């Protein structure tokens, strides 16, 4: 399935923008509308657009890794984010914050909820791409 | 103490690797752990003298009163010593028995996990952690019984053992929770001191039935005894360990442990006393019927378990002393006998006692050891088994209410067990040498160490009865009785009724032994045992379970999406709507709603979309119209300032369209298959559900039961969660554990979909 020239050109330009936007949504999610779930959906839509414009093989190539790996990494990151609190003697999933001052940028709030949110992001992206790619490839066969 | 219990689990994790590293010496080296534990537990003996108990406490889940607390007193120490002591020899023995076996590393792993679980059961003070260890023994023993997993029969037997013991385990859990509720504590050390409260508990009988269901299944009491002989499908070291000295003793342990708390009532006496006596009789009756050496021993184990249950039920001072002496005697001789049976099997290649004979020249050490251990089994002087049996007769003769029944059954059992002991010790070794599948020779040292030491201990304890008493039995009796008792154990009690009963049993038993071939012929005619035994009941129950499962799968999982939806929606209407109607009746408190112009327009759009989609004749059009409904909902979210929800809704709508487009190509041409009646039915269900939701939401607007939680969440969000987006703070911080569960569901769903798509694609190709 190859899309039209217009779609392909648009997809090429939109993909990096959408991905950037998804990262933006991910990182600002704690204060403004956004978050890992929404950002993951946006990233998945970006890749899905690319899939429609080109094909499954090229989308896989662009992703670089098997989406199932992203899925697993997401679950791993989310689970691991619960562990530091145990080491500090707190209950599982107690949020830990490490605010860092980056010169010329301002305060960056590193935290376990951020890692958790990244996990959610990777999982959503991985789960949707797993299904979408599998459907598309099954159709081609 | 924590390390002592958990070290088995740790070693279980490294055992497979260590076994490969150590090669042939693995058995001897790995046995160092149980040996070290044995020494460690020995060092506790002085602390428990005179019935003293120590509680060692480690927090686990303090919020739920679940702790890894350990109770060390005579009873738990006696069991811990048996588990670690016999465990040492079993590990050594396994190295010889399973020499060169492909799965030996795995075997050691499971074995150590089992040992640790067993130690956990007998040492736990917290009843919930006791239950956890209890179930761990069921699971590990399942793996051990089914160790020869390529053998269908072994798998079946393992599953049977698992089902029976785990069914009992569930009942036990309920019983233990009731126990905690009645006694107001999860700690055994406190529960056992509030025996009067427990016995006066209004639901005492129900609680007792639940707990005993757990212990009876675990300890193979009639009518649940059938799994134990089948468990002989396991390699012999497993049988020797699990089914003589440990696993099945877990139930006995728990009954003995709870005796000060629950014992002393009529229910206790009759249930334990009678079930125990019948089990004792059944075990010995079936043992005499067997020609397979392992089955013979398995049934005699059932006899011993019945005896122990009966004695705990009788609960007099004499009975408790007898129970603990019998327990020790049985563990010593039975482990030895099982290991010897394994030796016979290993060296001759057959388990059938009819095919063996004249082995005494070839296997002299085995022969002598077998004689000593069998003397203890038969209860003959000067072995420790004799003392135990005399005590048992003494206890049954003076039992309250059920003395006649128990004594008669005890004597009959003793006769048959005498014959079985003689058969086991003499039949394979005496007479003419018979042709066997393998050329027999003496078993290797690793397989003789255990039997020789354990049989020797039976002899030493018999001659010097004060040794075990001073050592451990005194404090163990104190723990079971609830207060210390003074007693001494001698071989010679003078001429009294127990001695005469023993004499009767020995003489008659030897007569039975002499005429065993004729006895067997009689047994062969009793085919009803196989046709109507409780094992048939188990098979019926399992078949019924499968039948019900198939039936309800056919009904519920019928493969029609619309049926699933109708079921779900109607259930919701019935439950939520019904409840709503019951509480409000006809006076529905409708809230007044101000509707703005925008809201009305969006609502109209959504409704229009819903109507159009149900009339649409093309799939692509339906997809687009469903999208209209979805985007309308997103707009409502925007109006009510829920931007996160709106964005999510829009993204999900977009992805739904993408997925539908991908699937659309794969669907057959659009067809209208449903009849008009079906469509009217569907419309009614939809209207009913929609109507209920509308009424419900209108009513909710007017009712405020408690203050909404959102104000508090807003306040916490920035101070505690360092974020202004409350939705996100809740998702990733306040309720992160819930979110974790949800993303696991998403992940699993994706894997499930992936698997289905790939499998179908592969099906097509092949």
Structure overview:
- The complex is a heterodimer of chains A (141) and B (766).
- By secondary structure, chain A is mostly helical.
- Chain A is 70% helix and 9% strand.
- Chain A is built from six helices and two strands.
- Chain A has helices at residues 5-28, 36-53, 56-63, 67-80, 83-87, 112-140, and strands spanning 97-102, 106-111.
- The longest helix of chain A is centred in the C-terminal third of the chain and has 29 residues, at 112-140.
- Chain A is flat and about 55 Å long.
- The relative contact order of chain A is 0.17.
- The model of chain A has no long low-confidence stretch (mean pLDDT 87).
- Helices cover 75% and strands 2% of the residues of chain B.
- Chain B has a two-stranded antiparallel ribbon with strand order 1-2.
- In chain B, helix 5 (74-97) packs antiparallel against helix 13.
- The model of chain B has no long low-confidence stretch (mean pLDDT 87).
- In chain B, a hairpin with a 4-residue loop joins strand 1 (54-61) and strand 2.
- Chain B has four domains: 1-263, no CATH class; 292-516, no CATH class; 552-707, no CATH class; 708-766, no CATH class.
- The two termini of chain B are 58 Å apart.
- Chain B has 34 helices and two strands.
- Chain B has 766 residues and is mostly helical.
Describe this protein with a few key phrases.
heterodimer, A: 141 residues, two-stranded antiparallel ribbon, 6 helices, B: 766 residues, mainly alpha, 4 domains, 34 helices, ion transport (chain B), cell membrane (chain B), antiport (chain B)
